[in-house]
Amino acid sequence: MSDPAPLGFPYAIGEAVMAALTSDAALAGCALRANPEKPADIADGRRLLVFKDAADALKDQSGNAADRTYTFQAGALARTADARAQAHTDYRAAKRAIRAAITAMAQGGVNVRGQVRETNVSFQLENIDVGGCLVLGTFAVDYRDLNGF
Length: 149
Hints:
The protein is an alpha+beta fold. Helix content is 27%, strand content 39%.
């Protein structure tokens, strides 16, 4: 049996989400920053998208299959004259792109279970002054890893 996620589902899901964010027409002009750790990582740009891996939790393990939940954060940062409105507009577009990416994975035979869930929204990035308006959502995706062991 071939492994649908040879680098692991968190990596595959993250890559699908980032690809969706960077290819969505509504988000044209936004630059993507993956896993920013310091202010310099997000210092440049009027409209940014942020993606951060958060967690990958084991829910249940039976046999060689593991039911897990991958959690990530994605958000929009704006430094425009209408920064608050722009960040919220971009975040709504990002949510639609994320949902479409996860739905496509599930329909493509990847063992993603159900739909992506938005579990929390915050307006700051821990320990980083973003210098603009940020809308940052936490999302969870359930999946079954049949080849992880």
